[in-house]
């Protein structure tokens, strides 16, 4: 197996492993933003090229993580973390290496065992952005009751269901062949909030 670096091909052996002096972590994390994966724990180390994306686009594409991915933080060393992508699973074999530790969020879980999503873990567009607080309320609450395998990394409007007074949004539920969309409206969220008071 090999990875391509910014100066050519980087052999798997070139990706620096966790040093004996590094802090062992082994925790799931969510990237705060898009960040390139590097072969060593420093900003001047080669970036790993996303070979498949590069072949398809005929332009150099780098292996990155962002808020739509889940990673395992293996260890920390001097402000850098060695990570391996966990989700989506098809990136696990190629997306591993070093990223700045401050670009990773700890995965938070409520006392009821529900995942707590932060604002920066969701990609907002011009339709969903004005309703961030309502959407976060839905995503961190009743939507997880409807779908324990919720993926709210991107939330947008459903144009065919939206009215001017009541925008309708959707998020992805499930994995692989069991994927479906869950639709929810501004009015529905507001009603749920009233009932929980």
Structure characterization notes:
With 197 residues, the protein is an alpha+beta fold. The protein folds into two domains: 2-106, no CATH class; 108-195, no CATH class. Helix content is 15%, strand content 37%. It is built from four helices and 16 strands. The strands form five sheets. The chain has a five-stranded antiparallel beta sheet with strand order 9-8-7-3-10, with no helix packed on it. Strands 13-14-15-16 form a four-stranded mixed beta sheet. β11 and β12 (115-116) form a beta hairpin. α2 packs across α4. The radius of gyration is 19 Å and the shape is elongated. The N and C termini lie far apart (55 Å). Mean pLDDT is 89; it is low at 1-9.
Q: What gap, in angstroms, lies between the N and C termini?
A: 55 Å
Helix and strand succession? EEEEEHEEEEEEEEHHEEEH
Q: How many beta strands in the DSSP annotation?
A: 16
Give the strand order of the largest sheet, numbering strands 1, 2, ... along the chain. 9-8-7-3-10
Number of domains: 2
Radius of gyration: 19 Å
**Please, what is the average pLDDT?**
89
* Number of helices, where a helix is a run of at least 4 consecutive DSSP H or I residues: 4
Structural class of the secondary elements?
A: alpha+beta
Quaternary structure annotation: single chain
For the largest beta-sheet, the strand count, sense and barrel status come to: 5 strands, antiparallel
> Which stretches are low in confidence, meaning pLDDT under 50 for 5 or more residues running?
1-9
Shape: elongated
Strand content: 35-45%
Helix content: 10-25%
Protein name: SH3 domain-containing protein
């Amino acid at each position: 197996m090999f990875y391509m670096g910014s100066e050519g091909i980087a052999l798997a052996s070139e990706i620096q492993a966790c040093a004996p002096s590094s802090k062992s972590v082994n925790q799931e994390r969510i990237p705060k933003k898009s960040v390139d994966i590097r072969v060593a724990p420093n900003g001047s180390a080669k970036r790993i090229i996303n070979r498949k994306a590069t072949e398809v686009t005929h332009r150099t594409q780098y292996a990155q993580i962002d808020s739509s991915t889940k990673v395992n933080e293996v260890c920390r060393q001097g402000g850098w973390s060695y990570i391996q992508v966990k989700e989506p699973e098809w990136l696990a074999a190629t997306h591993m290496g070093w990223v700045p530790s401050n670009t990773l969020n700890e995965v938070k879980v409520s006392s009821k065992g529900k995942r707590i999503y932060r604002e920066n873990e969701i990609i907002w567009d011009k339709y969903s952005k004005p309703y961030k607080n309502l959407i976060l309320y839905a995503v961190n609450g009743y939507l997880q009751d409807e779908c324990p395998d919720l993926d709210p990394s991107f939330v947008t409007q459903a144009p065919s269901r939206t009215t001017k007074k009541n925008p309708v949004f959707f998020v992805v539920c499930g994995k692989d062949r069991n994927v479906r969309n869950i639709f929810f409206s501004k009015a529905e969220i507001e009603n749920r909030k009233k009932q929980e008071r």
